[in-house]
């Protein structure tokens, strides 16, 4: 008797449920095969520079972030754009770290490799206003080169 | 001990806190073990009063606390290294000062303990950098960094030592070889004599060994000479 009652109740419940289209979710092979790091487009040079400028422009940047940023940036196969270097120098100023500012200029020269004679003067020329504004001396002026 | 050495030792449980620390932990563990055994004995023999047992328990519980306090005080050493604490490289092996062009900003400054004059200079650095003289800027640089990148990359001339030392060792082995040859080694076997080999050759020719393409084919038997 109870079984019959229960059966009845289930039927009532089924009948009262609104009809909805149910989407069957089947795991797709395409989704499974997608790797986490393979998504996303290629970052444009412009975006790369902007993101690094944004990183170094953080107002309350700390010592560790500055070191980590510079070390990582130097790890890439490139010489940073002058506007990134300006952001780094200003970060050094906020941290009252004149030594690191000089070091950054040095590492730009070292990073330019065999083309240091073309790239380094160009970078210096581009960042000259910042150097003057902050009172940063180049390693050559300090006799540290 | 170098950074590499420390990382090599790590898997073997030797942490960069120094062996004395480990030794202390071991001795405390021993004391604790000893106390535990004696308490069990007391319970078993029921010779100790309730008060005495509690005291022993308290003592036993105090031991790990002592150990913990000691461990804590060592691990609390200043990360920058210096006064009263461990050197920075002991706190974290990555905190090693090194001048590398591919890692231009080391995790620790070259000079971590500043004198009063240096502290004053640091305070001045917080102000306008234009008011700093070249000498002061240089000194600030040398506080933070040991060598400039140019100095770090400058050739050291070490290759001369390496080449010289290697040549010396090779020369020494020749000397040893000559001495051995002269005084230590037995004489060469007689098959290595010139006479023996000549006789061997003659025999081969008499036997007309390898007459088509080999030895005998190259000997002119009518004129008794090499073709």
From TrEMBL, chain A:
Gene Ontology process terms (BP): mitochondrial electron transport, cytochrome c to oxygen
InterPro entries in the record: Cyt_c_oxidase_su5A/6, Cyt_c_oxidase_su5A/6_sf
Pfam families tied to this protein: COX5A
Pathway(s) per entry: Energy metabolism; oxidative phosphorylation
Cellular compartment(s): Mitochondrion inner membrane
Membrane topology according to the record: Peripheral membrane protein
UniProt GO cellular component terms: mitochondrial inner membrane; respiratory chain complex IV
MF annotations from Gene Ontology: metal ion binding
Keyword set includes Iron: yes
Keyword Oxidoreductase: no
Keywords for this protein: Heme, Iron, Membrane, Metal-binding, Mitochondrion, Mitochondrion inner membrane, Phosphoprotein, Transit peptide, Ubl conjugation
Biological role: Component of the cytochrome c oxidase, the last enzyme in the mitochondrial electron transport chain which drives oxidative phosphorylation. The respiratory chain contains 3 multisubunit complexes succinate dehydrogenase (complex II, CII), ubiquinol-cytochrome c oxidoreductase (cytochrome b-c1 complex, complex III, CIII) and cytochrome c oxidase (complex IV, CIV), that cooperate to transfer electrons derived from NADH and succinate to molecular oxygen, creating an electrochemical gradient over the inner membrane that drives transmembrane transport and the ATP synthase.
Family: Belongs to the cytochrome c oxidase subunit 5A family.
Subunit structure of this chain's protein: Component of the cytochrome c oxidase (complex IV, CIV), a multisubunit enzyme composed of a catalytic core of 3 subunits and several supernumerary subunits. The complex exists as a monomer or a dimer and forms supercomplexes (SCs) in the inner mitochondrial membrane with ubiquinol-cytochrome c oxidoreductase (cytochrome b-c1 complex, complex III, CIII).
Name of the protein: Cytochrome c oxidase subunit 5A, mitochondrial
Name of the gene: COX5A
From TrEMBL, chain B:
Protein name per the record: Cytochrome c oxidase subunit 4
Gene3D superfamilies, alphabetized: Cytochrome c oxidase subunit IV
Domain of life: Eukaryota
Organism from which the protein derives: Branchiostoma lanceolatum
Family: Belongs to the cytochrome c oxidase IV family.
GO terms for biological process, alphabetical: mitochondrial electron transport, cytochrome c to oxygen
The keyword Zinc is assigned to this record: no
Keyword line: Membrane, Mitochondrion, Mitochondrion inner membrane, Oxidoreductase, Transit peptide, Transmembrane, Transmembrane helix
GO CC annotation: mitochondrial inner membrane; respiratory chain complex IV
Pathway noted in the entry: Energy metabolism; oxidative phosphorylation
Transmembrane segments: 159-179
Membrane topology recorded in Swiss-Prot or TrEMBL: Single-pass membrane protein
Subunit-structure text: Component of the cytochrome c oxidase (complex IV, CIV), a multisubunit enzyme composed of 14 subunits.
Subcellular location per the Swiss-Prot or TrEMBL entry: Mitochondrion inner membrane
Keyword Mitochondrion: yes
Main location as per UniProt: mitochondrion
Gene: COX4I1
Functional summary from the UniProt entry: Component of the cytochrome c oxidase, the last enzyme in the mitochondrial electron transport chain which drives oxidative phosphorylation.
Molecular function via GO: oxidoreductase activity
């Amino acid at each position: 008797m109870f079984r019959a009652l229960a059966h009845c109740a289930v039927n009532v419940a089924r009948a009262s449920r609104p009809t909805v289209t149910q989407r069957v979710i089947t795991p797709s092979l395409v989704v499974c095969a997608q790797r986490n790091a393979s998504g996303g487009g290629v970052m444009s040079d412009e975006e790369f520079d902007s993101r690094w400028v944004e990183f170094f422009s953080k107002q309350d940047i700390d010592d560790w972030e500055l070191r980590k940023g510079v070390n990582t940036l130097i790890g890439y196969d490139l010489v940073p754009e002058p506007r990134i270097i300006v952001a780094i120098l200003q970060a050094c100023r906020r941290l009252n770290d004149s030594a690191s500012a000089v070091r950054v200029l040095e590492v730009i020269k070292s990073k330019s490799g065999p083309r240091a004679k073309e790239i380094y003067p160009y970078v210096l020329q581009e960042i000259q206003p910042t150097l003057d504004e902050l009172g940063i001396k180049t390693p050559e002026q300090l006799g540290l080169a | 001990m170098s950074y590499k050495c420390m990382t090599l030792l790590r898997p073997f449980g030797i942490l960069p806190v120094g062996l004395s620390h480990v030794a202390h932990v071991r001795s405390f563990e021993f004391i604790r073990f000893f106390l535990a055994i004696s308490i069990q004995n007391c319970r078993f023999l029921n010779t100790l009063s309730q008060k005495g047992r509690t005291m022993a328990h308290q003592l036993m519980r105090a031991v790990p606390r002592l150990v913990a306090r000691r461990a804590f005080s060592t691990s609390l050493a200043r990360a920058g290294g210096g006064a009263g604490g461990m050197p920075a490289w002991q706190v974290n092996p990555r905190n090693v000062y090194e001048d590398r062009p591919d890692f231009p900003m080391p995790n620790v400054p070259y000079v971590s303990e500043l004198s009063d004059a240096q502290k004053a200079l640091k305070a001045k650095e917080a102000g306008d950098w234009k008011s700093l003289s070249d000498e002061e800027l240089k000194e600030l640089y040398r506080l933070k960094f040991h060598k400039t990148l140019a100095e770090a990359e400058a050739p050291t001339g070490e290759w001369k030592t390496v080449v010289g030392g290697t040549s010396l060792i090779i020369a020494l082995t020749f000397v040893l070889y000559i001495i051995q040859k002269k005084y230590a080694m037995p004489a060469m076997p007689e098959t290595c004599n010139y006479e023996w080999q000549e006789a061997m050759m003659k025999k081969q020719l008499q036997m007309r060994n390898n007459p088509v393409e080999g030895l005998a084919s190259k000997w002119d038997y009518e004129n008794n000479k090499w073709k």
